[in-house]
Structure formats: C-alpha cells, structure tokens
Write a structure and sequence with these properties.
single chain; about 280 residues; Rossmann fold; five-stranded parallel β-sheet; about 35% helix; binds magnesium ion
Length: about 280
C-alpha cells in the first residue's frame, strides 16, 4: 500500500512527457495599463527560448496583430505579430469557414477590415452576406444606419465580441456589445458573437497554432470569459490574480480553474511541466 502511494507521488512530480502549448490572454495577464505584469517578460522569454508553442489572445478587434505587436513593444513586451490572435481574426476565420469568398459590410477599424479582407472577402454595402460589427472609437450614425438596413434586408449579423464596456481614463467607454444592442433594438435581430467567451475563439486559435486542447494551458484573468471558454474548449485553465479577479471572485463560480496563480511569473521555470505548479498561497487564506 505504502509503495503504491510512493509511486503515485513520484508520478505526480515526474516531468511530464507532454509538450505543452500555451494560450494566454493579453490584458491583466501580460500587460496591465500599458505596463508589463510582474514576471511576464521572463515567462515570454522562457517560451521563446525553449521553442514552446504559444499564442496571445485578445478580444480587441481595433488593431492588426502587427499594430498590437508594436504597441506591446512600447510596453516592453516582445510578442511577434504571428503569435497574436484577435477576435477580428477569429471572426474572419469563422466567415471563411462558413461561407468562403463571401461579402460583408464591416463597421470597425483596420484590425477587422484587414482580417476580413485577407480571408478573401469583398467589403461592400450592396447586398452583403454579412454585417460584421467590431470595435471602433468613431462610430458613425450613418454606418450604423446602413448596418441596420442591410440586416433588415437579410444580411446575417456577426459581432467580434460581446463586451459592453472597455476601460477608459474617465471610467468606462461603450464597447462593441453596447453598439450591438443598439442595432439589435432597431432590427430585432441578435448577432452571433465570435470572441471570448465563445469557445469558437479558443478553437480557432488552437487551429492557427496547430495545438490540441488537452495539451494546452489557457491562462487568463477572468473567470467568466477566459476560464469558462478555456474549460469549454477542453483546455487546462490557469487563473492569474494579476488582473481583474481576486481569489474571492474565483470562488463565486460553479466551475474552477486547474490552478490559481499570482501571475505568469509563477510559471517561470515550469513551462515544461506547468501542472507541477501549485496554487497561490492566497488560495489557502
Ligand atoms: Mg484579461
């Protein structure tokens, strides 16, 4: 009996034979208010140095991956454009899969128009297959009116992400979900949301990086989006306490992540065997 137990212990601590992949949220995990999170640079260095497959996720559809990579570099975080997966790219991948070489009327910024265009779509306001709504800082009444009328004429309504608000220096600002509500009220049509918490976002990222869900760790700072959709896409999930959620927030939900850690810094030295990392001491308090 004793021997069996020892074997078990040994197995638990033994280096894993799995080659782990990492999907990580961006805000609150790697950067916070344009500053790198403690340990984020070391964590990314370890992934890059050990040739570990990873992808950084964001519901932000404003910027192209190249723009985001340059913005992160200004914050001291080095992530190549090809390691960034946005809700705009997930939306473009969805459109391409559903209806290759279709047409769309896009309300959004270059992050979205570029992704949809690169997926082989024609951007038009004449009888498009889809109306695609993303984030912008300059919503035009004219564009929204056009979107509403195209949807009423039969265009399918797609939205990059359901977030109702985003952070702003003065408090919050209305985000994509709020504008979707406006269009919904005028048309009676609900959009299909692609970004988190839709696991579609995770699955398309996994496909883009060529990884299997069961060998992938999803790292995020939100229980209701990152952990929920990570779980639903079949991944191991790590909640970090460096962003929006504290330990108490984690306890409020009927599901729990595989691990709760202070920040991605806790993974430094363990990226080859991430499940060997223990919960943060804060969990026991
Ligand atoms: Mg976040």
């Amino acid at each position: 009996m004793k021997r069996q137990q020892d074997d078990k212990e040994e197995k638990k601590d033994a280096p894993s034979s799995v080659k782990w992949n990492f999907l990580t949220d961006m805000d609150g995990v790697l950067v916070k208010e344009d500053k790198p999170v403690d340990g984020a640079e070391k964590f990314l260095e370890e992934l890059q140095g050990n040739d570990i497959n990873y992808m950084v996720l964001t519901n932000n559809s404003i910027f192209t991956p190249r723009d985001l990579s340059a913005r992160l570099a200004l914050s001291g975080i080095d992530i190549p454009a090809e390691r960034i997966w946005t809700s705009a790219m997930a939306t473009a991948a969805f459109l391409d899969e559903q209806n290759p070489n279709g047409t769309a009327y896009v309300v959004g910024e270059t992050g979205l128009t570029t992704a949809v265009h690169e997926a082989g779509y024609i951007l038009t306001d004449t009888n498009p297959d889809y109306v695609v709504l993303g984030e912008t800082r300059t919503y035009s009444f004219e564009a929204i009116t056009k979107a509403i009328n195209l949807i009423l004429k039969g265009a399918k309504f797609i939205c990059t992400n359901p977030d109702n608000t985003g952070p702003a220096p003065e408090g919050v600002l209305p985000a994509t979900g709020s504008v979707a509500s406006l269009i919904m009220a005028s048309t009676g049509k609900e959009p299909y949301y692609i970004g988190k918490p839709n696991p579609m976002m995770m699955r398309s990222a996994l496909r883009a990086m060529g990884a299997h869900s069961e060998e992938t760790i999803m790292i995020g700072d939100r229980m209701d989006t990152d952990v929920k959709s990570g779980l639903e896409a079949g991944m191991h999930t790590f909640l970090v306490l460096s962003g929006i959620s504290g330990v108490k927030e984690a306890d409020r939900w009927p599901y729990r992540p595989s691990r709760i850690i202070d920040s991605v810094g806790a993974l430094v030295g363990h990226t080859d065997n991430p499940l060997s990392v223990k919960d943060s001491d804060k969990v026991k308090d």
